[in-house]
Amino acid sequence: MSKKLAAIDIGTNSFHLVIVEIFDNGNFEIVDNEKEVIRLSEGSTGDIKYIQPKAIERGISALKKFAGIAKSHNAEIKAVATSAVREASNKIDFIQKVLDETGISISVISGVEEGRLIYQGVLQAVPVFNKKVLCIDIGGGSTEFVVGYKGKILYANSLKLGAVRLTKMFFENYSITNESIENCKKWVEGVLFPISKIIKNFNIDLVVGSSGTIMASGLMIKAMLEKKVTEAILNNYTFNFENLKKVEKNILKRKTVDERKKINGLDSKRADIIPAGVILLSTIFEQLNFSEIIISGYALREGIIFDSVYKEFPNVKKLFTKDIKNESVEKLAKSCNYDFKHCFHVAHLSENIFDQLNELHQLPKENKEYLIAAAKLHDIGFHISHSKHHKHSQYIIVNSEIMGFNENEIRTIACIARYHRKSHPKDSHEEYMLLPAEWKIIVKKLSAILRIADAFDRTHNFLVKYINVEINKNSVVFQVENKLEDLEIELWSIDRKKQLFEEFYNKKVIVKSFS
């Protein structure tokens, strides 16, 4: 038995919908999502005191669409509104009109509550549970600052600093001048000053950013560095202050909206408000004195989902927050209806081999999680077809939401899974070709190990429980407790799959028995 929940985030700049199916064990999967740029504050001044009739019409039109999508999924709706509605003098009229015309009941949340929900969302997207993290969410009307550690909020504040709000205050008609840039920056510095010292005192480990301005900045930086525009996976993507300043310079030298629409990686719908947004983000970097930021693909609307899950399934809270990488991998593995017990056993053997080959592969221990993830997922391609299942595995991994990993990491995991059989890594293979050179080396080293581990469970009977690895001058000896005559199929498989290991590590593979 499962239920579906639709979370709606009614923001100053845009409205977002995400629908999930929640299962009895507390796991869930996203089944639909939608976004509409509304500009709820359009027609008002910098301080959002009144929602204009045309903005109300746009908002209701979008919410009718969202309600229809939710109804088609038979999903319960939870809608929250942030700064634009929170500050509007006619918010009661707006909320009632929405209820009358769409059936959606809106909950207006405080800035601090907004920050709490954003932190809940971030914890599911970026592996920061055990870090003292500063979460920054730049919206259209406000910016939320949350310091969290192990799921607890140590500090939260919401400032009236947003891309739409600052645009209305300093960039009339969306054109920019040197004077307006300077005035905007000084204003932001003044508003930030009281909280900057407080936040610095927390000795932050990591900074995580979410929502429109930060996502847009990450996409522009990625396009600048890679000299192309891609459908990028931005979750867990890190960018630094130096590259942000380059993007900021490029934006601010373009004085009109039409000029800014030509910027690689920038959504043209954001060209009017991006100057204010990037000035705000750049000034936050300067005032809080941090050098880089990690992007979270989850924020408020996902926080609403997780908060609802926690309330209905309180025992799953720790499961969701402590190890999102492994949890996300295992959720994908178990959803694909294949022999995941075999794959999890192969993951165990892969880890066993990796740990004993340190002096040979010379990879940092952090890379082991790519091998384990690939091992757990290497056969999910059977979900599509037995034929060429290794290629199907790669496709599913690349196109799935595996939280906690960035784009290169997901592609690396996908390639390792692909190369557990058949062809060795080649530059003519599309996903492998897209990896930087240093990541290609990781793929070769780890897929070679995965092939050996997979071969040791060729019958899927878990015959080999433990492997002792001995590195010699010209060989690597894999010792098992089993009698070799009991591993006829496994030995046959190793003989077929050992070539990549032997070629890359330049050592002969030998299997021996303890007994």
Describe the overall structure.
With 515 residues, the chain is α/β, with parallel strands linked by helices. It has 3 domains: 2-108, ATPase, nucleotide binding domain (Nucleotidyltransferase, domain 5, 2-Layer Sandwich), CATH 3.30.420.40; 112-295, 2-Layer Sandwich (Nucleotidyltransferase, domain 5), CATH 3.30.420; 324-513, Hypothetical protein af1432 (Orthogonal Bundle). Helices cover 49% and strands 17% of the residues. It is built from 22 helices and 14 strands. A 6-stranded mixed beta sheet has the order 8-7-6-9-11-10, with helices on both faces. The chain starts with a strand and ends with a strand.
Indicate the structural class.
alpha/beta
Percent of residues in helical segments? 40-55%
Strand order of the largest sheet: 8-7-6-9-11-10
How many distinct beta strands? 14
Number of separate domains: 3
Overall geometric form: elongated
Could you name the CATH class of the largest domain? Answer: Mainly Alpha
**CATH homology superfamily name of the largest domain:** Hypothetical protein af1432
Provide mean pLDDT, rounded: 90
Report Rg. 26 Å
Task: Specify the number of helices.
Answer: 22
CATH topology of the largest domain, what is it called? Hypothetical protein af1432
Detail the poorly predicted runs: none
Distance between the termini: 50 Å
Strand content: 15-25%
Task: Quickly list its features.
six-stranded mixed beta sheet, Nucleotidyltransferase, domain 5, 515 residues, alpha/beta, 3 domains, 17% strand, 22 helices, Hypothetical protein af1432, elongated
